[in-house]
From TrEMBL:
GO cellular component: membrane
The reaction(s) this protein catalyses: GTP + H2O = GDP + phosphate + H(+)
EC class: hydrolase
Identification of the protein by name: small monomeric GTPase
Keywords, sorted A to Z: GTP-binding, Hydrolase, Nucleotide-binding
Length: 209
């Protein structure tokens, strides 16, 4: 089974932990508790292939900067998260991405730009088109998400796996499901190439692939 090292980055309070816990455990953590560094493992099925995701939930960009180079070096794919309710968290991601590219010594890095808290539309200060434009400039995927309502949460991580597989294809015969109980995995069969899985309950959240 192929393993993937994914890193979730962004300013404090944007919902990095909430997104990660919602994906891994299926629950919404409303109380904000600043993270130092948490690691999660989740077995999923993406496009018929069993995959083990190791997800590193990191501290805010203003904290614990000494650890960054190490997890940027080891990470295979990156989730860059901002809050649509805080302009500064969006601005912070430009320097963060530049640091990733410098550490990785390449501009071809699997990455998803995430505008979180799209359930708080009345408090929005970062427009969808702003995120879309930045993602196009970066040649990356863009998703607006809600950890609270579980909008586009799974899509973040499935898309990163697909990006990694596109760059370094896997041998499907070696990674097919082998008697794995269905309850222990998340399947991408319900994920329509990054389209919202919650029917009409997207609250205006945006997907750009």
């Amino acid at each position: 089974m192929r393993e993937y090292k994914l890193v979730v980055l962004g300013s404090g309070g944007v919902g990095k932990s909430a997104l990660t816990v919602q994906f891994v455990q299926g629950i919404f953590v409303e109380k904000y508790d600043p993270t130092i560094e948490d690691s999660y493992r989740k077995q999923v099925e993406v496009d018929g292939i069993q995959s083990m995701l190791e997800i590193l939930d990191t501290a805010g960009t203003e904290q614990f900067t000494a650890m960054r180079d190490l997890y940027m070096k080891n990470g295979q794919g990156f989730v860059l998260v901002y809050s649509i309710t805080a302009q500064s968290t969006y601005n912070d991601l430009v320097d963060l991405r530049d640091t990733i590219l410098k550490v990785k010594d390449t501009t071809d890095v699997p990455m998803v730009l995430v505008g979180n808290k799209c359930d708080l539309e009345d408090e929005r200060v970062v427009g969808k088109e702003v995120g879309q434009t930045l993602a196009r400039n970066w040649c990356s995927t863009f998703l607006e998400t809600s950890a609270k309502l579980k909008v586009n949460v799974n899509e973040i991580f499935f898309d990163l796996v697909r990006q990694i597989n596109k760059r370094t294809p896997v041998n499907k015969d070696k990674n097919k499901k082998r008697n794995v109980p269905q309850s222990n995995t998340i399947s991408s069969s319900n994920v329509n190439n990054g389209q919202p899985t919650d029917g009409n309950n997207t609250n205006g959240c945006c997907v750009l692939l």
